UniProtKB/TrEMBL annotation:
Region Disordered, annotated ranges: 1-25, 37-70
Protein keywords: Methyltransferase, Transferase
Organism of derivation: Sporothrix curviconia
Keyword Lipid biosynthesis belongs to the record: no
Alphabetical list of Pfam families matching this protein: Methyltransf_12
Protein EC: 2.1.1.-
Protein name from the UniProt record: tRNA N(3)-methylcytidine methyltransferase
């Protein structure tokens, strides 16, 4: 599935945008430009070297001898933008709220998108056989489109635990495995002789790419075609039975499903994961630049779009996502960029989506409880062109009851 990077930690750069939408992405970015604020300078009595040693943490240092990126390229979540900072000093900043100019532009974009939705004919064409479009995607991009997700162990410590030499028999299921950019990094770090990784995708082409990879080791890994929203005999992937999975990984795959498939997908995952097992989750948040940049003719329904290559993508509200899996929203709400706007009568503009999720499960009947759900807001900077681009992802863990 389409890839992005981590939370409290954010991640490798986002996947390359569809060519037809590059210009729109650049336009959105340019609207967010602001005057750079000069960085703070050391006190007169300090030398620059002394000031750097005393005041600059490793992850913000430009000194090769003290630059964390040289020893830990996946240190995320610690670079906060303050009034004293020059926003264009670094390529990215963590946990940055969108500015008013971007929010205003985003709302105008949403209105334009709604005014020119995908035709009924194209809706049927794209929704009837989504695997066809992902097969074409992987045929064109093979294994070279996405970077390996080396940040997984940092973001989801349970993946380190099941890979320990004394962890015992453990089973990981990756849903929406694509070309193996999650499974292979896990396999490379594994020290558990009894670990099994089941990497599934509903694209046969993607599965073939994994099976042909030099790192594919059938002793520890099995790649299969499987639709996460399958029904009947197809509700479980080959080689796995009920309550057989210790950890399920869904990274940028849930967003590829139609809202009508969410409930079935959650039920399928629940059937596979052991009581007490973990679901590791990461996906797109509403207000992400990838959503805002969509032009006319891409809107399927609220927050749901078709990309230029025919693949689908949904952008989630935080509470909406939690409700889908647990039957209730978090007690403490933390709105994300572009969150639901109240109308004059007090109702929500996106109430239709909230109602969809409320109908899935009651809190008592829901198969999962929430461990954590975070909002990863990143400000990506093009320093050469003085552009700012706002990204938003959701990342969390669910526990099987």
């Amino acid at each position: 599935m389409a890839d992005q990077a981590p939370v409290a930690a954010a991640a490798p750069a986002a996947s390359t945008p569809v060519a037809a939408e590059d210009a729109a992405a650049r336009t959105v970015a340019s609207l967010a430009i602001s005057d750079a604020v000069p960085a703070s300078t050391p006190a007169p009595e300090e030398t620059p070297a002394a000031a750097a040693a005393a005041d600059v943490p490793a992850h913000r240092s430009h000194d090769p001898a003290n630059n964390a990126k040289r020893t830990d390229p996946f240190m995320f979540g610690q670079r906060f933008l303050t009034q004293e900072d020059d926003v264009f000093e670094y390529n990215a900043w963590d946990h940055v709220e969108t500015d008013d100019a971007f929010k205003e532009y985003a709302e105008k974009q949403y209105e334009l998108q709604r005014s020119a939705p995908v035709s009924d004919f194209d809706k049927s064409r794209f929704n009837s056989d989504p695997a066809k479009w992902w097969n074409m995607f992987y045929k064109n991009n093979t294994a070279n489109f996405f970077k390996d997700r080396k940040w997984l162990h940092q973001e989801f410590p349970v993946l380190t635990e099941v890979c320990e030499p004394d962890a015992g028999p453990k089973t990981i299921l990756e849903i929406g495995a694509g070309a193996g950019n999650t499974a292979f990094p896990i396999l490379a770090r594994n020290k558990n002789p009894l670990l099994r990784i089941h990497a599934c995708d509903f694209s046969k082409t993607a599965v073939d790419v994994m099976r042909k990879d030099a790192a594919y080791d059938t002793k520890h890994m099995q790649a299969d075609v499987w639709d996460a929203a399958g029904t009947g005999d197809d509700a479980m992937p080959p080689g796995l039975g009920p309550a057989s999975v210790d950890v399920a990984i869904l990274v940028f795959i849930f967003s590829a499903l139609s809202p009508s498939q969410w409930k079935q997908a959650v039920e399928n995952v629940a059937r596979l994961v052991k009581p007490g097992g973990t679901v590791c989750f990461r996906d797109y948040g509403r207000g992400d630049l990838a959503q805002v940049r969509f032009r006319k003719g891409r809107y399927l329904e609220e927050n749901f779009y078709i990309r230029g290559d025919g693949t689908r993508v949904y952008f989630f509200e935080k509470d909406e996502l939690v409700r889908i899996w647990t039957g209730k929203a978090e007690d403490t709400e933390a709105p994300i960029a572009g969150d639901m706007d109240k109308e004059e009568d007090g109702s929500f503009a996106n109430a239709e989506n909230a109602e969809k999720t409320e109908a899935f499960f009651t809190e008592e009947d829901a198969p999962f409880t929430l461990e954590n759900m975070g909002v990863d807001r990143r400000l990506i900077v093009n320093r050469a062109m003085k552009l700012k681009m706002y990204r938003c992802w959701l990342q969390g863990r669910f526990r099987r009851k």
